[in-house]
Amino acid sequence: MLNSVLKLFGLGGVLVMLCCAANGAVFRDRAAFNAASQNLHIIDFESVVYTEGVLEVDGLLFQSPVGMRIDTQQGGKVLVVNSVGEFTQVTILLPPGTTAVGCDQFTTPMIVSIDTGESVMMDQSNTSTFVGFVTDQPIQRLIVSLDFPEPTPSAIVDNITYGQRRAGNEPPVPQLLTTTDTGRVLALDSVTNESEPFHILSTHNFATDGHTRISLFVAGVALEPADAAFVTVQAEDTQQHIFDLPVEATARVKNLSWLSQVTIRLPNTLATGNFNVTVTVRGKVSNKAPLRIE
């Protein structure tokens, strides 16, 4: 299942992002950042094994034109980004739906920034090594970089934390993933791992009723098996008729802690044709994404 998901949406993230005016906040205190965020995941590099090539951890992709390594410093494992002359840079591609990200960055001077425009220049006068950003719009990249002085110091990065912005006591909004090439819902047959179009009945089926089960994938929420009772899925046809798609299971996707999976059954009441699908978690409705049933 994991390989099928990655093949469909790739490492760079693929969902149709929510777009709104940027309203970013910068945090230098981790406790304050945590209070402004929710559904947080942390990469601390303690169990990361890396030698050369592409570094991918929990679906995050680390890119550096000048090389990097995992090293033990200050009593723990950290990511060390090498420098060449006057240039140091690492770009971290974040999961879809990320609106909060932070890290400990131990080297100064160094610039820590995100692609929505917020940036922090760290220098020797800083009393905190933590930098965090929380925004109203999705963050796709966290960048640690410097192009002065000579020689430019290597960057030391640890405890990368990412999740979603907290809006009061409101639960996070689920983000339904779509494929990069078509913009359609990311969905797989739960038995064959094939993508759409789907059929209501299937001969490749573990259930005795013969109905097709498909898996949808959502970011921004952390779903466990016990959460199935709080999740609903609906499909809307071109005539604005609404169909309930029974939710049979919810879970995290293995090796991708930020991604959740919702398994639904296609009912007899569902017609054939094109639909817009939404996932609702604890009253919060996701974006719409097209799905075809034949």
Question: What does the model show?
Answer:
The chain has 294 residues and is mainly β. It has two domains: 22-165, Jelly Rolls; 175-293, Immunoglobulin-like (Sandwich). The chain has two helices and 24 strands. The protein has helices spanning 2-9, 30-35; strands at residues 25-27, 37-43, 55-57, 60-63, 68-73, 76-81, 83-84, 87-93, 100-105, 110-114, 119-122, 130-134, 141-146, 155-165, 175-176, 187-189, 213-219, 231-236, 242-245, 247-253, 256-265, 273-281, 284-285, 289-293. Strands 1, 2, 5, 6, 9, 12 and 14 form a seven-stranded antiparallel beta sheet that branches. The longest helix has 8 residues, at 2-9.
Outline the fold blueprint.
Layout: H1 2-9, E1 25-27, H2 30-35, E2 37-43, E3 55-57, E4 60-63, E5 68-73, E6 76-81, E7 83-84, E8 87-93, E9 100-105, E10 110-114, E11 119-122, E12 130-134, E13 141-146, E14 155-165, E15 175-176, E16 187-189, E17 213-219, E18 231-236, E19 242-245, E20 247-253, E21 256-265, E22 273-281, E23 284-285, E24 289-293
Antiparallel strand pairs: 1-12, 2-14, 3-4, 4-8, 5-6, 6-14, 7-8, 8-13, 9-12, 9-14, 10-11, 10-13, 15-17, 16-17, 17-21, 18-19, 18-22, 20-21, 22-23, 22-24
In short:
By secondary structure, the chain is mainly β. The protein has helices spanning 2-9, 30-35; strands at residues 25-27, 37-43, 55-57, 60-63, 68-73, 76-81, 83-84, 87-93, 100-105, 110-114, 119-122, 130-134, 141-146, 155-165, 175-176, 187-189, 213-219, 231-236, 242-245, 247-253, 256-265, 273-281, 284-285, 289-293.
